[in-house]
């Protein structure tokens, strides 16, 4: 079936060529990193996790959000999501693939990945993060292939697929929960050491994931004969709205706890984010941009009539995606290191090779999503 994704109109071929060029640029930058080491990045002794791990954290949420369409359809029989379940699984495959690639480049030398496999440490959250991510990728790949084969033969999916679908629901929650535990278990990092981290991760995931899926559906509506329907898009918009509101509420709870308790180790991180500290204001404009984008998205989406307007909905979804990308990406990761346990403010700015590698991985993820989606639409006969 994959050969269906290799043919298309000139615009489609140009899109594939652009993504392939982006991947090639990322590969060239990674070759330079292999030669020079992680010293070519903006990371240092004090900020040892940067752009790569930030993208990993964000994309784990995008991958976990596939449960938003799978659960209502598989468990509650919501028919509006029947045609979206397969697309949700394909989005999860692309997102998990990018997660694994970001961890791969963050490890420095590729051989170090083997240490996790050859010398497993069950007491380490890193080990379980690898297990749940690899398992989730495998589950979605098997489910998507079986479902696509069944659609090609115009037959129902095999009976053994449903248990795997049901298993993927708690597994989706586990991948982001374990990722949160990876951070909140580090006692020397007060910014991450909170019981709310896992709920915050899940709430933001259930906002950013549906927002991205809505954008994909709107693009497909314009470029193909596939139309998810106003009811399905409306339900996704409602989920994204309340998930974003919950995510903002959790952040405000964290702020109240830190500021009212006035514990210096907790207050200093938030001050660095929103006001800056002597010697460091790098993330202040980004943090306020995330706040304003979240406020804009909520203002647009809380009115049901506004959610039904395609242009307004697209703007709101872009705002949600960008806001959570900032807050959960660089804001969450870098601020966990700044200030250091000794009170030092280290400056972290991603370098050009670091950004190119990240863009190359995003290009690879979009390429995977494009190929999988086009294959599915060609099987359904819904290509333009």
What does this molecule look like?
This protein is globular. The protein has one domain (2-380): Formate dehydrogenase/DMSO reductase domain (Formate dehydrogenase/DMSO reductase fold), CATH 1.20.1630. It is mainly alpha-helical and 384 residues long. Helix 3 (67-76) packs antiparallel against helix 4 (85-106) and helix 3 crosses helix 7 (161-184). It is built from 14 helices and no strands. It has helices spanning 10-36, 51-64, 67-76, 85-106, 112-118, 125-152, 161-184, 197-223, 230-261, 264-274, 284-301, 304-307, 310-335, 352-380. The model has no long low-confidence stretch (mean pLDDT 88). 41% of the residues are buried.
Descriptive keywords:
single chain, 384 residues, mainly alpha, Formate dehydrogenase/DMSO reductase fold, 14 helices, 73% helix, globular
Summarize the structure.
The chain has 14 helices and no strands. With 384 residues, the protein is an all-alpha fold.
- The count of DSSP E runs of length 2 or more, i.e. the number of strands, is 0
Low-confidence stretches: none
CATH class: Mainly Alpha
Oligomer: single chain
Q: Work out the helix count.
A: 14
CATH homologous superfamily - what is it?
Formate dehydrogenase/DMSO reductase domain
Helix content: over 70%
Structural class: mainly alpha
Largest sheet: none
Would you tell me which CATH topology applies? Answer: Formate dehydrogenase/DMSO reductase fold
Order of helices and strands: HHHHHHHHHHHHHH
Strand content: under 5%
Calculate the terminal CA-CA distance, rounded to whole Å.
18 Å
What is the typical, i.e. mean, pLDDT? Answer: 88
Tally of individual domains: 1
The CATH architecture: Up-down Bundle
């Amino acid at each position: 079936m994959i050969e269906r994704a290799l043919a298309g109109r000139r615009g489609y071929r140009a899109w594939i060529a652009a993504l392939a060029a982006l991947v090639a640029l990322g590969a060239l930058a990674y070759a330079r990193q292999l030669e020079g080491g992680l010293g070519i990045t903006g990371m240092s002794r004090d900020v040892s996790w940067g752009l790569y791990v930030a993208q990993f954290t964000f994309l784990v949420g995008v991958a976990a959000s596939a449960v938003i369409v799978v659960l209502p359809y598989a468990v509650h029989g919501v028919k509006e999501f029947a045609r979206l379940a397969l697309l949700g699984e394909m989005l999860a495959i692309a997102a998990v693939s990018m997660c694994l690639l970001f961890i791969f480049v963050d490890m420095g030398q590729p051989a170090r990945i083997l240490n996790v496999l050859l010398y497993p440490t069950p007491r380490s959250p890193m080990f379980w993060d690898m297990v749940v991510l690899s398992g989730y990728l495998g589950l979605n790949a098997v489910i998507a292939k079986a479902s696509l084969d069944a659609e090609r033969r115009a037959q129902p999916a095999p009976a053994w697929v449903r248990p795997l679908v049901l298993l993927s629901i708690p597994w989706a929650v586990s991948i982001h929960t374990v990722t949160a535990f990876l951070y909140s278990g580090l006692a020397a990092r007060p910014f991450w050491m909170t019981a709310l981290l896992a709920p915050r991760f899940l709430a933001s995931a259930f906002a950013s994931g549906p927002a991205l899926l809505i954008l994909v559906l709107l693009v497909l509506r314009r470029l193909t004969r596939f139309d998810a329907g106003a009811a399905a898009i409306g339900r996704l918009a409602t989920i994204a709205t309340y998930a974003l509101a919950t995510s903002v509420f959790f952040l405000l709870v964290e702020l109240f706890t830190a500021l009212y308790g006035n514990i210096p180790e907790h207050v200093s991180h938030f001050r660095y984010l929103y006001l800056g500290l002597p010697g460091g204001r790098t993330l202040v404009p980004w943090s306020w941009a995330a706040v304003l984008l979240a406020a804009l998205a909520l203002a647009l989406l809380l009115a049901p009539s506004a959610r039904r307007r395609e242009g307004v909905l697209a703007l709101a979804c872009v705002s949600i995606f960008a806001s959570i990308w900032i807050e959960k990406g660089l804001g969450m990761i870098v601020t966990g290191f700044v200030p250091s346990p000794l009170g030092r403010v280290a400056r972290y700015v991603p370098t050009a090779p670091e950004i190119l590698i990240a863009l190359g991985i995003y290009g690879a993820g979009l390429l995977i999503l494009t190929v999988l989606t086009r294959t599915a639409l060609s099987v359904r006969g819904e290509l333009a």
